[in-house]
Amino acid sequence: MIKVDHLTASYKTLDGNVVAVEDANFEIRDNEIFGVAGESGCGKSTLLKVLYDILDFPLQVDAGRVLFTGEKNGQPFSLETGGVRKAWWNHISYVPQAAMSVLNPIARLKNQFLDSIPPEDRGRETKEQTLDRVRAYLEELNLSSETLDAYPFQLSGGMRQRAIIALATFMHPSVILADEPTTALDVVVQRGILMLLMKLQKASRNTMVLVSHDLGVHYQITDRIGIMYSGRMMEIGKTVDLFQNPKHPYTAMLIDALPRVGDKRQRVGIPGSPPPLRNPPPGCRFAARCPKAKDVCRHDAPAFREVSQGRYAACHLLEGEDA
Ligand code: SF4
């Protein structure tokens, strides 16, 4: 399980801290694909960076923590923000938007695989025996074994993304964090990558956190989804329920803006833009764009709470509803 415990993270700047994730408090369950969605700048990629413990300047955790607990090969493990790096690849892997940001452009893929596999996993294997295992795994992922001799720049975008997914999943990690893994790809390749991620998650029964601005992507593969807006979590629920019956006005407007097969009506986006993270307004962050805003919304921030079984939301309209 991943427990995001009242997490606040910010970017340090010369003009003060810009809070990108504020008081995020929720859980991600074992063996699920959990999606994080929202407009660009809502904090979803920052949240993923903190989960992966990429706390490089200027990003910092101001409050709270992330706790990973689980079991791998019969051994329980527990990791916390600040100590996650030692478990990279083995327990927790990361699939970035652009594979080139992880792959070394001047190293053949086989060397990058060998570098990422810890000696305890290789045991007494020779280098060639380890590479034979990698080749067999690549073939399972529809990548030819010759890929191992290639440099990243010799592969197409789709092949590079498959290679990085192979690298990220070779050790069968308990958690896979994927940040917009299909954004840079064309629609056909995108579908292939999504199906691959879903197949790998089902086969390994691990937990996947998928960040994407594209709600269509979430609809296709996630089990539950969290909607972020302006650094705050607005709603969490089962993907199917949330699409059929969004509780939060922001979620409802996002879903309403999606194109539908056979519906020729012009879809309009949500008018306005999110407030600046540097100096956000008091109250509900969505108030300036929300057609249902009341006076209280402009000065009191709604609590993020369970509003019905398994559904969490932050909205004053839902405060009368019982969990
Ligand atoms: Fe709209 Fe108020 Fe709910 Fe915010 S709290 S989403 S402004 S109704």
Q: What is this structure's SSE topology?
A:
Elements (H helix, E strand, L loop, with lengths): L1 E12 L2 E13 L4 E5 L6 H8 L7 E14 L2 E6 L11 E4 L13 H8 L2 H4 L4 H14 L16 H13 L5 E5 L7 H18 L2 E5 L3 H7 L2 E6 L2 E7 H6 L4 H8 L38 H5 L5 E4 L2 E3 L10
Parallel strand pairs: 3-8, 3-9, 6-7, 7-8
Antiparallel strand pairs: 1-2, 1-4, 4-5, 9-10, 10-12, 11-12
The chain binds iron/sulfur cluster.
Iron/sulfur cluster binds next to helix 9.
**Overall mean pLDDT score?**
91
Radius of gyration over all CA atoms, rounded: 21 Å
Give the name of the CATH architecture of the largest domain: 3-Layer(aba) Sandwich
Supply the number of structural domains.
Answer: 2
* Count of discrete alpha- or pi-helical segments spanning 4 or more residues: 10
Helix-residue proportion: 25-40%
Give the names of the bound compounds: iron/sulfur cluster
CATH top level class name of the largest domain = Alpha Beta
Per the CATH scheme, the topology name of the largest domain is Rossmann fold
Quote the beta fraction: 25-35%
Instruction: Give the H and E element order.
Output: EEEHEEEHHHHEHEHEEHHHEE
Unreliable runs, pLDDT <50, ≥5 residues? none
Derived from helix and strand composition plus strand pairing, the structural class reads: alpha/beta
Q: How far do the termini sit from each other?
A: 22 Å
CATH H level, superfamily name of the largest domain: P-loop containing nucleotide triphosphate hydrolases
